[in-house]
Amino acid sequence: MYAKGEVEVAGYQKIYGMAQCTRDLSGADCKKCLDDAVNELPRCCGGKQGGRVVGGSCNIRYEIYPFLNL
């Protein structure tokens, strides 16, 4: 499972993001894995312009620039 998106923050800055789970996860397990990854963001990436959390079965990434060419 895979998703990408962008959101405007503070009326001018865009944040680009993606989330991905391995195919062996159910929808519920993917959501739990991604929730856990999101909860790690403040610890690893708080205050930074970009960040990534890679787990065994899922990963998330965000940046202030478009990083995907899909």
TrEMBL record:
<protein>
    <submittedName>
        <fullName>Cysteine-rich repeat secretory protein 38</fullName>
    </submittedName>
</protein>
<dbReference type="InterPro" id="IPR002902">
    <property type="entry name" value="GNK2"/>
</dbReference>
<keyword id="KW-0732">Signal</keyword>
<dbReference type="InterPro" id="IPR038408">
    <property type="entry name" value="GNK2_sf"/>
</dbReference>
<dbReference type="InterPro" id="IPR050581">
    <property type="entry name" value="CRR_secretory_protein"/>
</dbReference>
<keyword id="KW-0677">Repeat</keyword>
<feature type="domain" description="Gnk2-homologous">
    <location>
        <begin position="1"/>
        <end position="67"/>
    </location>
</feature>
<dbReference type="Pfam" id="PF01657">
    <property type="entry name" value="Stress-antifung"/>
</dbReference>
<comment type="similarity">
    <text>Belongs to the cysteine-rich repeat secretory protein family.</text>
</comment>
<dbReference type="GO" id="GO:0005576">
    <property type="term" value="C:extracellular region"/>
</dbReference>
<keyword id="KW-0964">Secreted</keyword>
